[in-house]
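=== RUN LOG ===
request id: a7f3
mode: sequence -> structure
chains: 1
length: 636
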Amino acid sequence: MAHYCKWKDVKTVTKQHVNHTLLRTGTLCLISLLETWALCLSLNLTTKNPAAFLFFAGLLFVHAKVPAVSKQKTPWIDLAGLLLALSFVFALHGSLTAQFTSRLFQLLVLVVLFAGMFLLSRTLLLGLQELVSRRASDIRRTETSEQGSNIKTTTHGKKKDRTLLLSFLLILVCYLPYFLYEFPGILSPDGAWQAEQAIGTRPLSNHHPVVHTLVIRLFYRLGNLFTSDPDTALSFYTFAQMAFHAFCGALCVKTLKDLGFRKRIWVPVLLFYAIVPFEAVYAVMVGKDTVFGDIALLLVLCLVRILQETGKDGHRGKICGKSLVLFFLLSVCFCLFRTNGWYAFLLMTPFLLLILRRQVKQLLPVTVCVILAAGIIRGPVINAMNIEQPDTVESLCVPLQQVSAVVAEGKSLTKEESSLIDAVVPIESVKDQYNPVFADDMKELIRTTGDQSVLEKNKSAYLRLYVSLGLRYPGTYLQAWINETEGFWFPDYVHDTANIDNVWTNNAGLVWRPILGGAFVKIKEILIKLGSFVPVYGLLWSSGFYAFLSLGAFALTLEKKESRKKDRRYGLLVLPSLCVLFTLLLATPIAAEFRYTLALTFTMPLTAFAPFLSQGEGIRQDTAELIHESKENKNV
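=== RESULT ===
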């Protein structure tokens, strides 16, 4: 009888185990099927494509390693997965729903796409979280693993670390052929306009940051001390910008090395700055975008310094005076070298003070001084110098495109709404000139045939118009926003990146005078075309990829893990990029051009590895020296 009861218990346990296994297998198969289905929809693959089976089998294998369903709460990963899934739905809904006439099937395909991409994004992020947690020591040396082994001191006859100098020279040498070919520098319409102001053939304007224009003027006048040729004089600025960009890239490489990242990490980062063609093209392209991206990178490097000084969770102590001064100067430049940099800093400030709340007594006065200094320069100082400020429509691109879409689609308008619109720009002209992906057409239409002063004098009336049309036609507003901003947040978007030469027509006598040509021209064309030809590498040419990367890194850095060593403050390194991206989504200047997201691109090596920094605390060179000196003093 006892043997029978025991056998019965074994059968019950076995049956429960089998049922549990079947349930788990069925759940994983369903999740993998949804993910595969979503992949096929996003890649435009048919259900008969053999790649679908490979996706399904691969995802089943992944789920065997990475739990698809977990009791552990992952709110940040879930939020990132939600946003990534929504981006696919927003970008692809038009092409997918056009294949069906039934509303039910249209809804079904969108639900499948959303659910599958959410699960896939979550799986990927959970897998990366596990990788970061388990393999952090393979990527980066930490205090606990190889203390101080990544530090190369520079004093008392010890071995000198030449990483910064050698990296700078390598990057600069890689950029020089572009400088010689594009001599005196690439001048787009914006760049030509700024150059005219810098030279003095056009009055100064803050349409493009006047602080940057004055920097161009400084180097142009420096060049005039040696030559009267305007092209050669302007090339002094182009070379300075190129050298500055090379220095910022080299400093990022040196910082990664000092933080303990192994050679397999910082060498590819060095190559990213040195040989990826768009880095060199933007380095010699006269304009605010490159300089602003470099300032964003330096600001993030300064934040790394502050986080390292204050120790895990800010327990080590105060921020040193040098770091506070650097933070102040870089933050002011961040606010002044692009209009959206000002708004991005204002957006970032509360989070900065919250994350570094143990140092708030030091940081609060500094951030207040940054806001006051930048605000005074942007307003009273520029006005006192009689410098023209940007016009009204320049900052209203997204609302302008949304209202124009309503008009262009022939939506019903009341007489009052029609008269309000017609007072700013002729309604019939809107229908002819509206371009869903390019806001400049509407801005120029208003500037040439409309009246911006009406907008300025009746702000409340036009705000009510904007809100009322949005409530009535939310779908049109949403689609207009998607058309205008898609390139910023969806990777599979075609950017005409770095495919620019020549000097735009100008009244300053500047012309394109290539010093280098021949074989280099072909090499340059091939290198640029590889971005649209080679998979994975092509992602580097996508603003949406950097947005995905920033969002994922932010989620992984903030997500709690069963590790007492994790320092979630390193999410601060991703904040400047995310805040810049957010301002672009609210107020795209013209279109979703790659150059507007150079702040995300240039800071990518630091934002991508922020989760690894949060796993353990590295040692900066000066910190290691202080520890070494302290030990020597104790021994004495």
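=== NOTES ===
Residues 21-128 form one domain.
The two ends are 80 Å apart (CA to CA).
=== END ===
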